[in-house]
Amino acid sequence: MSSTVPFRLFPLSLGALMRRSGQRALRLMMGPAVALTAARGWLFPFAPVAMGIGVGAYFAIPVQPHPAQLVMVWGLAVLCAGLAVWGPHLLRPMVVALSLAAIGFGVAAYRTDLVAAPVLQWRRYGPVEGRIVMVDRSVSDAVRLTLDAVVLNGLSPGQTPLRVRVSVHGDGLEFDPVAGMHVMMTAHLGPPSGPTEPGGFDFRRLAWFDRLGAVGYTRSPVMALAPPEAGLGLALTRLRQRISAGIRARLTGETGGFVAAILTGDRSGVGQDTTENLRRSNLAHLLAISGLHMGLLTGVVFGAFRAGLALFPWVALRLPIRKIAAIGALFAAAAYLALSGGNVATQRAFIMAATMLIAVVAERRAISLRSVGLAALIVLLWRPEALPTAGFQMSFAATVALVAVFAALRDRQKNRPKSRQGHMRRVMQPIVGAVLCSLVAGIATAPIAAAHFHRFTDYGLLANVVSVPLMGVLVMPAAVLAALLWPFGGEGLGLWLMELGTRWILGVAQVFGGMEDAIRLVAVPPVWALPALGLGGLWLALWRGRARLAGVIVIASALIGWGLAERPALLIDRDGGLVGLLTEEGRALSRARGAGYVARKWLESDGDAAEQSEAATRAGFEAIEGGVRFTHAGQTWFHLHGRRGEAILSELCAEGVTIVINARIDGPNGACRLMDARALSRSGSIAVHADGQEITARMVSGRRPWSGF
């Protein structure tokens, strides 16, 4: 019997096999292009996603791109745009996406150069003169003044920051600060601070785009040099301050502060305890003027305009009252924007509301994913730096989720046979809708809030269900009523109604926020987890068909990666004032007092609810004269501070150990490794992992205009 395998067992020749394999590979490669081409009619909501990827890529790179590289990016955008117009139909969706990503990258780079302003490079103490442009309160509840037209002795105009922000501690402010007023004080100033740990929140980037070149504090008296200046912007700010003061005079206590905050954006009348209760009950978004407030206001005005015009048959039958109501609501939204101070969050909310109202005028569906996509495109083109912020991510996540879910429910309802609704069902429908809104928005924003603020609110859903509907049916309509009656002196009725709703909301916040288990802290996710969650959620909400389930896989992978992420074993403060060592009990801190903000951020990022004083009692550090001693990665480390630490520094340095010292001590040259003021100013905060690998804030932040390295 022959051992040769008959050739007939291989019916295909080698060439045929290669051709078939090539065809399969081609179909596999062209499959996405074919699917995108078939979906061209509803791909517009993906446009801001593509642009956002470009913006995110710009902020993620470690080095500022060279002008020649930016020219190449803009060239790529133009080339892809040309291919989208004249190229093959099959490639158009992909080249459009690539063009939008390149545009996002280029716009972010252009915006960075556009807002460039001097940043103070060292700490200084001396006289500060400037004009007040904003008055608010710091985390410690101190009055905080933001100044422009700044004058600092010894600095030329080219070195002087355009804006500085000074917290006034003690009794240094003996007058009511008003926008446009020139003031002078003696203050401690320094550059905006970097992240408390590598990869953490970088305040320097936020300050760069706000043109804030220095921050500090003063305990000395603040002197008024000149009365408020004229000008439309300053006049609006003063009007806002007068309205806020008038509201707080009519409605005393926390209620007046809350009403002033939601109408004018002035939160100075809301105490820290109330603010913390609102955060712990997941109601803090009611305090900030956001898309919810703008949407409720425009909805109330739109409904009132339309209902009022409908009362006159001649008008209702001859004029497009729906469009007229939309235009009236648009003007009301613009007035609300001006009255509230026009911060970035309020401007973003106005863009979203204006986009939907203009869609009504253009006889398009107002609430749709296309409208949300258009609003997101406008925001990214206008303020690309908003993309990494929690406000942008949470507002658009909630909006996309709500529109997608209710659109799916609407389509499902259309396919059902019509039936007569009973009385109970009509009564329950608004309640079910409110609960569903809170549930969907809560699920969409919870991972984002947890990633940025390291906390979940256990009772947030229930608190929102019993509070948010009251904002829509009582508080915001009463605000419109108060605004209409204010010129005639009849605003008391509207303010009284607002007070009733506000007392309920603050009571709910106090009840739920005061519970011991109101929040659960969670560890900070790896840097890739939040973008993966966002892209997976957007794919799930925007794509159609079964392929959207791929978004669930991406979301699940990101959540698993989040849960498996490891925190650094050792953290060193950017100023050398604090060291945190991860132990079995949690992170142990080298000091019970000092660097409180850094300590709180470290513990929150670990998902640890302990106070600094409690973390300082954990095992891991051995107290010595002038500091503490600890062991990590097989090495002995010392954290020294004060004069006693300086006295023993030379003796320890002779032993060749690793030493972490306070920034106030100047380390000697020797055989040991010193992390002194000079070294930490170059590296920023430091994270050391269990295997001894060191990562510095400079390595993560890179060489960017705002990084300060």
Can you characterise this structure?
There is one protein chain. The chain has a five-stranded mixed barrel. It has 25 helices and 18 strands. It has five domains: 34-114; 124-229, OB fold (Dihydrolipoamide Acetyltransferase, E2P); 272-415 and 422-515, no CATH class; 529-564, no CATH class; 570-701, no CATH class. Helix 2 runs parallel beside helix 13. Residues 1-12 have low confidence and may be disordered. The chain is globular, with a radius of gyration of 29 Å. It is 53% helix and 14% strand. Strand 9 (570-572) and strand 10 (579-583) form a beta hairpin. By secondary structure, the protein is an alpha+beta fold.
- Kindly estimate the percentage of residues that lie in beta strands according to DSSP: 5-15%
> What is the residue-averaged pLDDT?
83
Radius of gyration: 29 Å
Whole-number tally of structural domains: 5
Strand sequence of the main sheet, in spatial order?
A: 1-2-3-5-4
Which class best fits the helix and strand makeup?
Answer: alpha+beta
Overall strand count: 18
The main pleated sheet reads as:
5 strands, mixed, barrel
Summed up, the helix count is: 25
What is the overall silhouette?
globular
The low-confidence runs, each spanning 5 or more residues with pLDDT under 50, are: 1-12
Distance between the termini: 80 Å
What fraction, in percent, of the residue positions are helical? 40-55%
